[in-house]
Amino acid sequence: MSNEPPTDSGLSADGTSGVASDPTARTAAALVVEGITVAYGPAEAVRDLSLSVNAGSLVALIGANGAGKSSTLAAISGLVRPRRGRVLFAGQDVTRWRSSRRVAAGIVQVPEGREILATMTVHENLMLGAWHQAQGFEAGVQEIYQRFPILGERRALLAGSLSGGEQQMLAIARALLAHPRVLLMDEPSMGLAPQIVDEVFAVIERIRKEGTTVLLVEQNAQRALQAADYAYVMETGELVLEGPADELLANPKVVEAYLGESLSGEDGLEGRSFDDGDADAPRRTSG
Amino acid sequence: MTQQIVNGAFMGSIYALFALGYTLVFGVLHQLNLAHQAVFMLGAVAGWVAVVTFGFPLWVGVVVAVVVGGLLGLLIERVAFAPLRSRPDDHFAGLISSIALGIVLVALALGTFGPDTVRFPREAFPRIGFQIGGATITLLQLSILAVAITMMVALTWLVNRTRMGRALRAVAENERAARLLGIDVERVTMGTYVLSSALGATAGILFALAFNTIRVEMGLAIELKGLAVIIVGGLGSLPGAMVGGLILGLAEVFTIAWIGSGWRDAVAFTLLFAILLLRPQGLFGKPKVREV
Fold first, then answer.
1. Residue-level pLDDT at A28
2. How distant is the Cα of A207 from the closest Cα of chain B, in angstroms?
3. What is the DSSP secondary structure assignment for residue B234, as one 8-state letter?
4. According to DSSP H, which parts of chain B are helical?
5. What radius of gyration, in Å, describes the C-alpha atoms of chain B?
6. Which of B169, B183, B186 lies closest to A131 in CB terms?
7. What is the pLDDT of residue A198?
8. How far apart (Å, rounded) are the C-alpha atoms in residues B210 and B225?
9. Which residues of chain B carry a pLDDT beneath 50?
């Protein structure tokens, strides 16, 4: 991880292989991050980070708050331009692409804190999700309403009136309508009650089973590692550990640093804070 | 009385159109474009040039003003705002540079057209009037009102019912979320300035037709009124700008009719202050929440 000659030809050979039939092979990379450094002014949030996400796999990026996980996703989505390094998507160098072009190509993010558009209706949020995929929208949105019946019921309500769990489902549904090839999920369990977290993870695993590649950023390391095939661990802007998720789950260093508290309870909800506990009592604007 | 209401609504619709340009940019981008007053003047000048210099009919003059306004919007965004976007103080810097660009545009107009007031020839106007319940309204006034109302309805429809409008509202609420949805925020930004300036230039040509005077400084007189209207209506609120403009127009006309023309600004602006005392966030403003 220490030296980083930005070789321009390094990963093109395996990157171009496109759709993978075998998700366990570490050859067909849908997304490759090569030695990126992300800095805001003089402060480096991410230093020389490299990772690779195979097509069809679910990869977790875990670490404490402030480790640089969200900045990594911001660089992959094109919200910030890395000071050094490259982002490759399906073998193409997308480092200089604008975020709108990346979304159109299939790099779609469900952002931290959900960032649904509170002053717009649920349906309008979904229409915006399909910004680059407008032609298949009607069929797509009907499928979404079947899959998330609660969103169908509340399609005409302002998204800001939904409960936290419903907003997370809306954020995920909105991303799915963008036809992601790589779905980036930033802290999808944050601030949600335990049974809602279960629902969110069930949705994530189903998305992955349907063939979408997922890069999952989580502070809830236990849940993330249980769901993932492969994982990277970040600390203060750098990768410190990587490996198959089940190996990391058994790794004493990981257990000590990230899973210590969770081992005392089966459902791993210790140490997490709930924003307002609203998941049990959804706010509604009409009866 | 009916005549005053007709005149006030007519004046107010022009104020509203002008103020909509400010509030649209503020609502979507949280920026204040103080070159807007130059757009108002140049819209009037462009329409006058089309009608008087090139001999087109009045309606073509209005269309020319709309198109010139849109192009000016693009110019303002590219020159006054886009280069400053990476600065941490970009909103304040943009405000200052838009004042400077406004001065440049006014000075260019002054150099080209001179300081004299110009007018449309009398014969360019239709000489038709209607009687409505004791009030007289000319075909010209009616046309101006129709253009203003049509543009307000069209803008409301665009913002609330179209794809472009959804993008505007998404950027207004959360620019980062809009980017993550794949919206090209730079294009939305340019589109917002084009729309805003087209409205401002239309207000300019309608104002010029209404009073049949075009001066290079005409924008400066309306600038503060437009800003007052959006503060009273609620910053960033489209219905606020429309209602605020109407209130200002009616207040001015009734002051002139009942008290005297010298009292116009004193009474109208005092009324606006009174509204702000009762509703500090503005008529349609929500405390701490922006809306388009």
1. 77
2. 18
3. -
4. 2-29, 36-48, 58-76, 90-113, 139-161, 163-173, 175-180, 185-211, 218-233, 238-258, 264-278
5. 19
6. B183
7. 95
8. 17
9. 289-290, 292
pLDDT of residue A263 exceeding 70, the answer is no
The encoded tokens of residue B203 equal 């207000």
Q: What is the pTM of this model?
A: 0.86
User: Domain extents for chain A?
Assistant: 21-259
B79 closest CA partner among B100, B64, B108:
B100
**Which of B163, B169, B174, B180 is best to mutate for the A interface (most A CBs within 10 A)?**
B180
pLDDT in tens, A15-55: 333 344 444 444 579 999 999 999 998 899 999 999 999 99
Give residue-wise pLDDT tens across range A220-234. Answer: 999 999 999 999 999
Please give the Cα distance from B4 to B9 (Å, whole number): 8
Q: Quote the minimal CA–CA distance from A264 to chain B in Å.
A: 37
**Whole-angstrom distance, CA of residue B134 vs CA of residue A209:** 75
Q: How many CB pairs under 8 A join A and B?
A: 65
Contact A98 B184 (CB under 8 A): yes
The identity of residue A137, as a single letter, is F
Does A1 score more than 60 pLDDT? no
- A27 with A12: CB under 8 angstroms? no
Is domain A21-259 in CATH 1.10.443.10, yes or no? no
- Inter-chain CB proximity B166 and A99 less than 8 Å: no
| Interface predicted TM-score of the whole assembly (ipTM), two decimals | 0.88
pLDDT band at residue A255 under the 50/70/90 scheme: confident
Least-confidence region, from A68-82, A265-279, B32-46, B263-277: A265-279
All residues of chain A having their beta carbon less than 8 Å from the beta carbon of residue B170 are: 117, 120, 128
A50-53, long-range: CB < 8 A, 24+ apart: A50/A1, A50/A4, A50/A85, A50/A239, A51/A232, A51/A239, A51/A242, A52/A11, A52/A26, A53/A29, A53/A182, A53/A213, A53/A215
